[in-house]
Design goal:
The structure is a homodimer of 204-residue chains. Chain A is mostly helical and 204 residues long. Helix content of chain A is 75%, strand content 0%. Chains A, B: Keywords: DNA-binding, Transcription, Transcription regulation.
Chain lengths: 204, 204
């Protein structure tokens, strides 16, 4: 899950192996997030992870491969953080408010997210597009189901899913990465009022 | 206009000079759009422009400077293309539909736009942020004025402007850069219905 078809996936078979892989990915997030793809190195990643260089090659073949795995991993982390918040809400519409609040909070705690995903546009287009396609697919599926339950407008389309994802990505950039002065819940509440009721003049 | 405060601006004083500068910027859009910032060269730009190397230095000091000027120029081109379409509409709300249609069409004709603006995040943060800040500022100003005329919801905020710009940027990426199968007017109409009326179940 969360891996592209092209990638040879070597998942660790033990819990300890899984932990080492996790440590390497977290170290890679810091390394790529701080130095960018060009500046990052495998030795820098293993130094941050406190693992031997040999360990790295047990899990990843190259800097390219761990970068791809990292984009997929961060993408899955975002969906794994936001998805449950949306599902826990009483309905899909208010779930959007909870999801956006959680997303802005996630971005503040993972400042490297944008730099890594955005650099993927240049380093590995497949990972870049894959991240957004999976995010939008998830949105479209849950919005379509919500439409069938009458919780959101009935004509939900892929265009709508892209529009909402774009809205959230830009709010995360502006209020998560560029500044942390505004309370995430306040930002999300303003955006949610627009998303729920629309831009037209509101009666009453 | 369209230049950052930090940049030394040497604008040509003659129409012919203005044309040469324009030719160099258009050539730079192709060069950076095709090869990226690292791969691009001043000689590649002058070759595409059909100008002497000396001409380049009449207008720009370095590859960095023409890149910054190009981001500002493309940013101004986007606003100069979309703004009038929004203003020509009978009201600000339907202007949004015209503006988004025009934006998707613009992106299809300027495939290099995203690559250049997105690379600015890594090459020159000031240009990157400046582009989005100016775009959002323009949106916020015109939406606030429209709110005073009663054409859109009365509580327009910066958050709303960021949300709408994000929506448009992602729709431009998906339906302008990644694919050109869908008619821009159809994509814009679907997004506009969501933006105007909101995600909530629609009555009637």
């Amino acid at each position: 899950m969360g891996e592209t078809g092209k990638m040879m996936v070597r998942r660790p078979r033990t819990a300890r192996g899984e932990r080492t892989r996790r440590t390497l990915l977290d170290a890679a997030a810091l390394e790529f997030g701080t130095l960018g793809f060009q500046g990052a190195s495998i030795s820098g990643i293993t130094r941050r992870a406190g693992t031997a260089l040999g360990s790295f090659y047990t899990y990843f073949e190259s800097k390219d491969e761990i970068f791809r795995a990292l984009v997929n991993d961060m993408s899955a982390q975002v969906r794994g953080t936001i998805g449950p918040k949306i599902l826990a809400a009483p309905d899909r519409l208010t779930g959007e408010l909870a999801g956006l609040t959680a997303f802005i909070e996630f971005v503040r705690e993972h400042q490297e997210l944008y730099r890594i995903v955005d650099e993927a546009e240049f380093v590995d287009q497949d990972s870049y597009r894959g991240h957004y396609r999976r995010t939008v697919d998830g949105y479209l599926t849950s919005l379509t189901e919500a439409a069938e339950r009458g919780e959101v407008r009935s004509d939900i389309s892929e265009v709508h899913a892209w529009a909402i994802v774009g809205m959230n990505v830009f709010l995360g950039l502006r209020y998560g990465v560029w500044s942390d002065e505004e309370a995430p819940a306040d930002v999300a509440a303003q955006a949610f009022a627009l998303l729920r009721d629309g831009l037209k003049p509101q009666s009453g």
